[in-house]
Amino acid sequence: MDYPDAIVASVAVIAVFTLATVLVWQLFATVKVRAALKDERSYQELAQENTRLMLELTDQQKRITTELAETRTSVAAMERMMREVG
Questions:
Q1: pTM score, two decimals?
Q2: Residue 1: in which H helix or E strand, if any?
Q3: What are the pLDDT digits (tens) for 35-85?
């Protein structure tokens, strides 16, 4: 093998190793990005569920507040009636 052939072979080997390194690096980067996207989707789903539950609780609080106001009105009416009778 001549000296120029050895240089060409060395450059080819270095190029192949460099290409393999870049491919492996990109593979790991892709896996990392996919994992991050999966986590982001999970967080989005969790946030949507949390929002739904908060809206449901708000509706329940409004209903309870209305029922409590009606109960107070009813109790006040009964107290007035008992004062009038007694």
A1: 0.55
A2: none
A3: 999 999 999 999 999 999 999 999 999 999 999 999 999 999 999 999 988
Alpha-carbon gap, residue 82 to 43, rounded angstroms:
57
CA-based nearest residue to 65, from 73, 39, 33, 41: 73
HSE of 15, CA atoms in CB hemisphere, 13 A: 6
Tokens 């290409």 correspond to: 19
Residue 26: both structure tokens together? 């990109």
Mean pLDDT across the stretch 11-31?
A: 96
Please state, in angstroms and rounded to a whole number, the distance separating the CA atoms of residues 75 and 66.
14
Residue showing tokens 């190793």: 17
